[in-house]
């Protein structure tokens, strides 16, 4: 007969989870640090998207030009100054972009119905078709990237993005300078170090 083995308790004790680190004054907690790094990743990806505009073929439109077309699609005919304000670009830049968009048949310039002294730009059928095609492509990309994320999480993300937009639009509080790139880099390296 085999020797009996001692009976051990079936319940094993789970190792204690360490308490989350508490952020010190001037530091972010782990969740905010993770959000900040993710935001910076997205910001840089958008910068790279805009940077690719310098390598476009002759008939392709830049991201900034597409944004102008979207403004015209959503707001209707606008004067160059109004469009510059809406797009947060200089009037000279917008005028140059509108010249190209008019030459390529995406917009037309006409006198305003309400003030004949004012010239407004409006979408042509070709411009409207370009926007619809771009929106269809981007809708597919958004769906592929975020289709499995719950509506609750998407609404939470939207709230966070709105708050970030408000934060960046607000002037810094007195005595609070803008963080330097070196400071941000050191924060990201600290966040990546194992605890």
Question: Can you give me a brief rundown of this structure?
Answer:
With 195 residues, the chain is mainly alpha-helical. The protein is 56% helix and 6% strand. It has a domain at 58-166: Winged helix-like DNA-binding domain superfamily/Winged helix DNA-binding domain (Arc Repressor Mutant, subunit A, Orthogonal Bundle).
Report on this model:
By secondary structure, the protein is mainly alpha-helical. The protein has a domain at 58-166: Winged helix-like DNA-binding domain superfamily/Winged helix DNA-binding domain (Arc Repressor Mutant, subunit A, Orthogonal Bundle). It has seven helices and three strands, in the order H-H-E-H-H-E-E-H-H-H. It has helices at residues 30-51, 63-75, 80-87, 91-103, 125-146, 151-169, 181-192; strands spanning 78-79, 107-111, 119-123. The chain has a three-stranded antiparallel beta sheet with strand order 1-3-2. Strand 2 and strand 3 (119-123) form a beta hairpin. Helix 2 (63-75) crosses helix 5 (125-146) and helix 3 packs across helix 4 (91-103). The longest helix is centred in the first third of the chain and has 22 residues, at 30-51. The radius of gyration is 26 Å and the shape is globular. Residues 182-195 have low confidence and may be disordered.
């Amino acid at each position: 007969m085999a020797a009996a083995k001692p009976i051990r308790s079936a319940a094993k004790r789970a190792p204690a989870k360490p308490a989350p680190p508490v952020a010190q004054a001037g530091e972010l907690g782990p969740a905010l640090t993770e959000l900040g790094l993710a935001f910076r990743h997205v910001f840089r990806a958008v910068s790279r998207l805009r940077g690719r505009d310098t390598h476009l073929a002759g008939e392709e439109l830049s991201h900034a030009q597409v944004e102008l077309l979207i403004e015209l699609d959503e707001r209707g005919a606008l004067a160059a100054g109004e469009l510059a304000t809406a797009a947060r670009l200089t009037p000279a830049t917008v005028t140059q972009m509108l010249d190209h968009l008019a030459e390529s048949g995406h917009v037309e310039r006409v006198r305003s119905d309400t003030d004949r002294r004012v010239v407004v730009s409006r979408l042509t059928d070709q411009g409207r078709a370009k926007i619809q095609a771009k929106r269809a492509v981007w809708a597919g990309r958004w769906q592929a990237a975020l289709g499995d994320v719950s509506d609750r999480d998407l609404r939470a993300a939207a709230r966070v993005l709105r708050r970030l937009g408000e934060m960046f639009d607000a002037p810094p509080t007195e005595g609070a300078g803008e963080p330097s790139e070196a400071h941000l880099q050191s924060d990201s390296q600290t966040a990546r170090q194992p605890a």
